[in-house]
Amino acid sequence: MGKSLKSCLRFLLVLNILIHGWNHAFVSAQSTPFPAVVFIGASQSDVGVNNNVPNSLARANFLPYGRDFVNGNQTGPTGRFSNGKILPDFVAQNISLPFPPPYNSPSARGAAVLQGINTASAGSGWLNGTNSNLGVVPGTQQVQWVRNWQQSLVGLVGTSRASRIVREALYGINTSDNDLLAYYGSTTLQQQYTEDEYIKLILDTAVPNIRNLYSGGARRFAVTSVSARGCAPNEITRYQPTMRDQCVQGLQDLVQKYNTAYKATIQSLQSSLQGSKFYFADTFTITVDLFFNPGKYGLRHDTSIACCGTGTFEVGPTCNSLSVGTCTSAADYLFFDSEHYTQAAWSIIVGTFIADLIRSLM
């Protein structure tokens, strides 16, 4: 074979690789339905925010938390209240984006935040007073952090691209459960407010915050319902320890009442905020079904018992490397500690709504 023919073939081979490689990159970029993902929330979405909050008592940056967590070169405890990935991780993974970093992390700067941030703080709620003694970042402060992020993009990529990122990003909101747990466990709050009054108080705080995000340019919102908090092992231990095969009905009723009002409020917001799109993800129904019918989803352990320690009360600092009885495989469990779901459970939960979320917001 002549030198000229060999050179020609080598040129065509390289050209083919370059073309197909470029096409692959183009397709991958186009397959991402959102340029960025932002999360606001509490412990179901905290990926390490509280690690960087001075004196915060609501942390999970120690074993056995994170023992099964893998994200590239990152492994082990990160601040996630689970054995591995949680809600925002599975959402990001399903829309082909990197896991959004904690907003207050020293590494969350420059290019690291172009594809989103996470402001979720374990223990927090929409209400500023919820668990304020634990050193948490309430929803209103988280929204201000998101506004800061929106504005910071201009300096990173310019006005035009920043506006597109902000407008087309997915804004996940996963909070309110701690507000409800605080009310259900407090005679003081129950004497001060009826259930309906307290629910209104939460929503009257949520609405202006969501409007604030909209004012900053946000248009695509995914709001999760409160999950089945009455089915958590810790709540069962606290309120009905001898009835472990049932969820705490009073708490379940409160959560359902709130979710109904929350969904109606979100639908009203979409009608009033021009150009906005809202998706309300029902996490309550699936978490009830997971509790009562675990085998249907491949879970093989008593769902009223968590993996960590005795599985009945351990959470946060009481779920640690010295906790006696911690399971060897969390894949069989619904709950990792007495309040928070396992990686396996989160995969199932997100799997029930992610396709519909993408269709609805695109």
TrEMBL record:
Residues 1-29 form the signal peptide. InterPro entries: GDSL, GDSL_lipolytic_enzyme, SGNH_hydro_sf, SGNH_plant_lipase-like. Keywords: Signal. It comes from the Eukaryota. Pfam families: Lipase_GDSL. Belongs to the 'GDSL' lipolytic enzyme family. This is GDSL esterase/lipase. The lineage of its organism: Eukaryota, Viridiplantae, Streptophyta, Embryophyta, Marchantiophyta.
